[in-house]
Amino acid sequence: MVYFIVKRMIQSVFVMLAVAFLAFSLFRFVGDPITQMTGVETSVADQERLREELGLNDPFVSQFIRFTGDMLQGDFGYSYRTRQPVADMITERVPATLELGVVALIISLLVGVPAGVYTALKPRGIWTQTILMTTLVGVSIPTFVIGIMLIFLFGVQLGWLPTFGRGGTVQIGNWESSLFTISGWRALLLPAITLGVYQLTLTMRLVRAEMMEVMRSDYIRFAMARGVPMRKLHYKHALVNTMVPVITIIGLQFGGVIAFSIVTESVFQWPGMGLLFLESIRFVDIPVMGVYLVVIAFFFVLVNLVVDLLYVAIDPRLRLRDVE
Amino acid sequence: MLTIKDLTVKFPSRFGDFSAIEGVDMTIKPGEIHGLVGESGAGKSTVGAAVIGLLQAPGYVTKGILTLGDTDLRELTPAQAHEVRGDRISMIFQDPQTSLNPLMTIEDQLVETIQAHSDASKTAARRRAVDLLEDIGIQNASQRIKAYPHQFSGGMRQRVVIALAICTDPEVIIADEPTTALDVAVQSQVLDLIQQLAKERQIAFMLITHDIGVIAQVADRVTVMRKGRVVETGATAQVLGAPKHPYTRALMDAVPPLDRKIDRFRVPAVDDTAVMQGDTAERWLLEGQQHCLTGLTLENLTVTFAGPRTSLFRKPSPYVALEDVTLTIRPGSIMGLVGESGSGKSTLAKAITGLVTPTYGAMILGDTVLPFGASRSRHHPSRQLVQMVFQDPYSSLNPRHRIGDILTEPLWFYGFVKDPAERVSLAASMLSLVGMQPDAITKYPHQFSGGQRQRIAVARALLARPRFLICDEPTSALDVSIQAEILNLLKELQARFGLTILFISHNLAVVRQMADDTAVLLNGKIEEVNTTEAVYESPQAEYTKLLLAQTPVMPKSWRQ
Amino acid sequence: MIAFLKKFEGLWLFVHSPSAIVAAMVATLIILGAIFASWIALVNPYDLASFSLFDGLLPPVWQDGANPKYLLGTDDQGRDMISAILYGARLSLIIGLSALTIAAVIGVGLGLAAGYYGGRFDAVVMRIADVQLALPAILTALLIDGIARGILPAAIQQDLRVAVLTLAIALSLWVNFARTARATTFVQMNKEYVQAAIMMGQRPSRVMFVHILPNILGPLLVIMTVDLASAILLEATLSFLGIGLPADSPSLGTLIRIGMQFLLSGEWWILWIPTLFLIALVVSINILGDFLRDIFNPRLR
Fold first, then answer.
1. Do B152 and A236 touch (CB under 8 A)?
2. Element housing C124 (H / E)
3. What is the pTM of this model?
């Protein structure tokens, strides 16, 4: 068990290093950092001195090691565009994106899992067909269109909910949260639904497929033959066995949540990391792009480590060695 | 008492209704073990599923009587039927590896089942579960009950399955191939257990199996089925010893006996047209016998695999698949290799064919030393001289290639025949040689039955002009009657073309029919090698004696 | 016989699945429309001379003030909506299909090889796939776009938009193919027909492409259909974010972005007609993908 987790951690470190390398290459090779940092009036000699000071003439490997070391210490460099420390810019934006992502994920799980179970247990019902058709249309509508539709309906036509921004926020330490005010929740609702719909359909379809597979397995048929009560059969036997593959995929899908939050944030002008990333792309603000990359990969790796731990908690085959 | 009368089950499909079973009659008294035997497609499992009410959708019972004691099983509502399951009728499945929920402890599964059918408190249910496990032969049950299924060995797991099936004191248990996935030793223990339960607890067993030996060993009465209908039913000794129906007689003729060797199985000539011809192929094979008979010698062959890695700091402990195997296969003879699952039989075949790299030892084919595994070049002559017939005819032929492409591949690959048209005609001739219609050449593998596919696989092996043939469980996926045909074919081809054969099987009776010499393998080590006659008649190794004693057979006295 | 039945079965299921038939018809219609756009379309939306501002903002024919010449109305530039959509669909499909082809070639090649060779090679490919997974599709696409802006001179940037966009989408989709190809190859590697081929001494490339590939085509075909839908969605999303194609050569996504300006005004058709069209296209592709999945995995039926 320990070996399993350590192995996954080593893999995670590898992924992080690879992404850091990507970010570093971005910084180093896409455009010249010196010309970006200095104005036209800086003399060639000054530029050269700056280059030497920043260590840009050092060997490639030692530059990368220094870059990684700086990152580990939280020194993420300066934005080309705003001249602010990138670390500040990102930490300021993290709460908005995380709150949005987590609420969207919860929505998708709360609706997706029960819907998946229902459609698996009653594969021929009229409701199942309706749900399946609806979700098929759901995955086919681009996230931004869903956003536009929601804005149009609830924001413009009905005027019930705000269509941009975070509403009222509360400062808790460094964390600016919109989860503690009513206006914050009102502002969060539409973006979270927009972001959640796609994940919801994926979760539902996955739970359904896995559940149908499990229901066909020998141990379910044996439990059936022993007269284990249906409710227990469905939820204790089948659903729990379904969870192992489902949480894996949900972990992998978390990347998707973050990615689509770029789109959602753009549609709703949600002041999160995604919006920052979009701006930095528009202005080729390489340091911000690189750091965003690293931060996203970090969250992804973190979530997947949690998934691995859940795995171990659910599946005794990973926890306990064979006795015989 | 379980009564089945005129039971008919239909599966509607868009091509009309398909009757899986028709007019099946059967009664099972308390304490009786009733064998239900037949080849694949006979509808045995459908009978069991209909009784317990778990027919695969969309199958349904169209007519007939199904009663258990005073209860009419066909009249029950789905909820009532579910109450009856476990309580009065229970079931044992084939594979103990897959029939237990891997995420729940044995205790949870037992307690849950007991509580589903009685008002027992959790502690009472637990006590009963522990007692039951002790009864059934699981030592230290109060501790072991806390374990998960994967912490039990295969045999123990099947005991747990049986405990789950009987923990509610059912009247009837349907055992669907309960020992097919088990090794001989475990099989004999499980069969003993079933007999004991029938006697002591007066449970009626419906024992569904394809294995005549198992039926002979434990069943009181037997029903023989074929294509969904009952062919013959009666006391086991009578049905197996003096079968009345021609089908049962043919079936019994096809069962390989353990106590003697028969030269050729009596196989009813079903397909008159498929006589062995193929003169062209025969001539081609004979002219290729430049250096005639080729033997194989293995010296101290050892194969170790890296075990699963479980710790970061300790090196994974190696797993020894074959240890110090020394074996001489005489040119032109058939060497039988017997062993249970995990004994290293298939590893040996893979080592010879270069799919597995031995760690130590030598392999000498004829007069050339075979390079190990990956160091054997793709053009090494042994790749042509050594051919293999695999176990599973459903996966040994590429499903996306036509038979013609499969058969001509060795011809061009080894550069035997340059002309494509000639390749095709030779392949067609080879098909007749193995008893198939030559027009099979334009078809795909899935258009053939298991037995036909195995013939095609033999033809493919022969088209490489091999001198040494490895048959790895070539008949264990086939029905007995088909097995008899394939064994006949292999014997005939071996005699005609002087092939040397390594015949691998877990089935002692089959090896006795085929092999000149026999080697017995246990945990990667050779326990005994001798002429087949000697191994079977006066076994030296304890393990061989045990294997022979535990293989279920029909008592000699029954035979007429 | 059974082979025939199997083919027959696919056809039979198709004939009995109204949604699949409708989806196939819609998809075919759109694809044909896109292919023959230059013949069908009233005007060439890329050619400023072929339309005039005087025709701007005309509603569809069923509304008052419409010009029957423009069935679905015109945009603010006076472009015929139908023409713009057909050309847009053509561009979307070209980008989607070429990205898909690149992704399939890279992904299937790597996945097959990883499954075949296993060991180190497999580990390396899978770690690369892990990294790619940590950087999801949109992010990858945006990133490549950003890099292209950084390194390409402004003059070439416009000309290379389509290529950059295609590459970005392809790179974000290959992992799907690689993972599926690898998993299915692993299954096939244990099949005896593959072992027989390896034992004979056949070249690895022959074993992979002649023996294994035909047997894993089914699941790959499903991925292909589903990913075509994703590719089109991705292109639309990128164009919507303003990073895809410029307004003078509009794809479906660009048309929607332009339409966004009219969200609050009365000219609903400029936004909603291209949107509906995009959804119809993607829905029908997804229905076909679902249908294929059912055929290749009958247990889920």
1. no
2. helix C119-134
3. 0.85
Q: Is B314 on the interface with C (CB under 8 A)?
A: no
Considering the domain architecture, whether residues B199 and B302 belong to the same structural domain is answered as: no
Residue B447 has its nearest CB partner, among C2, C197, C198, at: C2
**Quick check: is A30 in a domain?**
yes
Tell me how far apart the alpha carbons of residues B250 and B484 are, in angstroms, rounded to a whole number: 11
What is the total count of domains within chain A? 2
109-168 of A, contacting C, C-beta below 8 A: 133, 136-137, 139-145, 148, 151-152, 156
Closest residue, chain C, to A217 (C-alpha): C299
The boundaries of the domain holding residue B143 are 93-169
In a domain, A319, yes or no: no
- The reply to whether B383 and B463 lie within a common domain is yes
Distance, in Å, from the CA atom of C110 to the CA atom of C132, rounded to the nearest integer, reads 14
A158 within a domain of the structure (yes/no): yes
Write down the pLDDT at residue B309: 65
Q: Note whether B149 and B235 are same-domain residues.
A: no
CA B205 – CA B92 distance, rounded (Å): 10
Q: Does any CB of chain C come closer than 8 Å to the CB of residue A188?
A: no
Could you say which residues from 213 to 242 on chain C have a Cβ atom under 8 Å away from some Cβ of chain B? 214-215
CATH architecture designation of domain C10-300:
Orthogonal Bundle (1.10)
B320 φ, ψ (degrees, to nearest 5): -90, 110
Q: How many inter-chain contacts (A to B, CB under 8 Å) are there?
A: 101
Chain C residues with beta carbon closer than 8 angstroms to that of B401: 211, 214
> Residue A136 domain-assigned?
yes
User: Taking the domains of chain C in order of start, what are their residue ranges?
Assistant: 10-300
Confidence of residue A36 (pLDDT cuts 50, 70, 90): low
Q: Are A217 and B98 a contacting pair at CB < 8 A?
A: yes
B60-68 and B71-72 beta bridge pairing: antiparallel
Cross-strand pairs, B13: B16
Does the beta carbon of A124 lie under 8 angstroms from any beta carbon of chain B?
Answer: no
Inter-residue contact B434 to B474 (CB < 8 Å):
no
pLDDT at B414: 92
**B chain contacts of residue A236, beta-carbon cutoff 8 Å:** 104, 112
Q: Are residues B222 and B123 in the same domain?
A: no
Above 50 in pLDDT, residue C2?
no
Which domain range does residue A50 map to? 2-72
Domain shared by A175 and A237, yes or no: yes
Give dist(CA A173, CA A193) in Å, integer.
28
Among candidates C204, C188, C1, C199, which has minimal Cα distance to B398? C188
CA dihedral B361, B364, B368, B370 (to 10 degrees): -50
**pLDDT for B198:** 93
Cα–Cα distance for residue pair A185/B450, rounded to 1 Å: 64
Verify whether the Cβ–Cβ distance A151 to C263 is below 8 Å: yes
Both B81 and B108 in one domain: the answer is no
Residues of C in contact with B354 (CB under 8 A): 199
**What CATH number should be reported for the domain holding residue B520?**
3.40.50.300
Summarize pLDDT for C113-154 with one digit per residue, the tens.
999 998 889 988 988 888 887 777 778 878 887 777 777 777
- Pairwise CB contact (< 8 Å): C198 & B396: no
CB contact under 8 A, A317 and B116: no
What percent of chain C lies above the pLDDT cut of 70?
Answer: 82
CA atoms B33, B38, B40, B45: torsion sign:
negative
Q: Does B379 touch chain C (CB under 8 A)?
A: yes
On whether the CB atoms of residues A65 and A73 are closer than 8 A, the answer is no
Give A 58-117 residues with CB within 8 A of chain C. none
The reply to whether B349 and B416 lie within a common domain is yes
Q: Examine the domain organization and report whether A146 and A277 are in the same domain.
A: yes
Tokens of A305: 């480590």
Q: Which residues, numbered 242 to 281 in chain C, qualify as contacts with chain A under a Cβ-Cβ cut-off of 8 Å?
A: 242-243, 253, 256, 260, 263-264, 271, 275, 278-279
Same domain (yes/no): A62, A173? no
